[in-house]
Automatic annotation (TrEMBL), chains A, B:
Catalytic activity: 2-[(2R,5Z)-2-carboxy-4-methylthiazol-5(2H)-ylidene]ethyl phosphate + 4-amino-2-methyl-5-(diphosphooxymethyl)pyrimidine + 2 H(+) = thiamine phosphate + CO2 + diphosphate; 4-methyl-5-(2-phosphooxyethyl)-thiazole + 4-amino-2-methyl-5-(diphosphooxymethyl)pyrimidine + H(+) = thiamine phosphate + diphosphate; 2-(2-carboxy-4-methylthiazol-5-yl)ethyl phosphate + 4-amino-2-methyl-5-(diphosphooxymethyl)pyrimidine + 2 H(+) = thiamine phosphate + CO2 + diphosphate
Protein name (database record): Thiamine-phosphate synthase
One of the GO biological process terms: thiamine biosynthetic process
Pfam family, one: TMP-TENI
Ranges for domain Thiamine phosphate synthase/TenI: 10-198
Positions annotated to bind 2-[(2R,5Z)-2-carboxy-4-methylthiazol-5(2H)-ylidene]ethyl phosphate: T144, P145, T146, G175
Role summary: Condenses 4-methyl-5-(beta-hydroxyethyl)thiazole monophosphate (THZ-P) and 2-methyl-4-amino-5-hydroxymethyl pyrimidine pyrophosphate (HMP-PP) to form thiamine monophosphate (TMP).
Cofactor stoichiometry and binding remark: Binds 1 Mg(2+) ion per subunit.
Keywords: Magnesium, Metal-binding, Thiamine biosynthesis, Transferase
Gene designation per UniProt: thiE
Required cofactor(s): Mg(2+)
Family: Belongs to the thiamine-phosphate synthase family.
Binding, Mg(2+): D72, D96
High-level lineage: Bacteria, Bacillati, Actinomycetota, Actinomycetes, Micrococcales
GO terms, molecular function: magnesium ion binding; thiamine-phosphate diphosphorylase activity
Length: 224, 224
């Protein structure tokens, strides 16, 4: 059995500013226990040292069970690896460091995801050497308060159209949650990223379990 | 002639949010032309990609003339080096990545400065292997609007007392500018860091030249 593409299934963007005051690592633990396969830590409000501490705490829950990716801060990833922490890679956006430099810094085995949501982004990705990027984060499907700078929402029809042109597997993102897995899967996404649907849920574990179940059913329906 | 300790003399913290709308690289060019020996780029309001672009632009002015250090973002430093840009090191604070990890990431030849302004900070520095840190940034001498989280201002008497206990050469920082070089030098600092005194000056080059002249005279007076 081959390893699935990073980002497959339900993908939690664990946003330190969206936890309603609860420890981020607790929410990550709940998500992993519920079967979420990829965790991206997004800690724009934290210092590098605090981010590394969060990654260290979360790695205890993700190691050997889920992928742990860090948003933007390649140095926190490298420091974590140097300190022996099980972080698996980074996810970067169009305003972060250029992807080829990031790949050269993290090495060939680390997971590298890139936010790419326009035909121009896709064209740039197409010029990169094979293996530079593992998956694309594509959206926003809907408007979301989590990211202020997202482009005009695509909707599921826009997502479907965009993914059909994508040079790499896409994870759908942007205001997604309960009830969306079927449409995200049908749009061609390999995974569905959520932020508030788990981070801000009253019971993050139940919310994550329901999303994982929804995604699993969507996958079975199509593959049947 | 041996190379002076990094941070010696007038040290510009080129803060991207303090330029009154002028290009940061223009201010850095002015400072280097006036004889400023160390430039630290502090770009908290910029993305990693924008920070790298600023470093690239500034390196054209600093290469072979002044040290170019980057604040906090070790990944931007590493990306710059990987891209062939002449960046010389990083300056980190107590909330940034742990210093030993940073040293392991940047290698033995890069310059590494650390903000350290209490006896507790000094005690932690004293436990580090020799060569981990090149110099300390010590302050705030005065309150400053540039950094919101600085400790209680030391004044020059507090600075003198603190530097007398420091395990490494100290660069004085915090609200310093015209007329302060004599007292900063007399306090035992190897250099004087300024932000607004150059970044926000009507004529950054003249302001930098006056500070360099002031520091040079202070050094000569003591050494005479």
């Amino acid at each position: 059995m081959s390893t699935p593409t990073p980002g497959t299934g339900i993908y939690l963007v664990a946003n330190s500013a969206s936890t309603a005051g609860r420890p981020l690592a607790d929410i990550v633990a709940d998500a992993v226990a519920a079967g979420v396969g990829t965790i991206q830590l997004r800690c724009k409000d934290l210092s590098a040292r605090e981010f590394l501490a969060e990654a260290t705490a979360c790695a205890e829950h993700t190691a050997d069970r889920a992928l742990l990716l860090l948003n933007d801060r390649v140095d926190v990833y490298l420091a974590g690896r140097a300190a022996g922490i099980r972080v698996d890679g980074v996810h970067i956006g169009q305003k972060d460091l250029p992807v080829e430099l990031v790949r050269s810094l993290i090495g060939p085995d680390a997971v590298l995801g890139l936010s790419a949501s326009t035909e121009e982004h896709f064209a740039a990705v197409s010029t990169l050497p094979a293996g530079t990027i593992d998956y694309l984060g594509t959206g926003a499907v809907r408007a979301t308060p989590t990211k202020k700078d997202h482009p005009t929402p695509l909707g599921f029809s826009g997502l479907t159209s965009l993914i059909s042109q994508a040079p790499l597997p896409c994870v759908a993102i942007g205001g997604l949650g309960s009830g969306d897995a079927g449409e995200a899967h049908a749009a061609g996404a390999i995974g569905m990223a959520v932020v508030r649907a788990i981070c801000s849920a009253e019971n993050p574990r139940d919310a994550a379990a329901a999303l994982v179940d929804e995604w699993t059913r969507a996958s079975r329906t199509v593959n049947a």
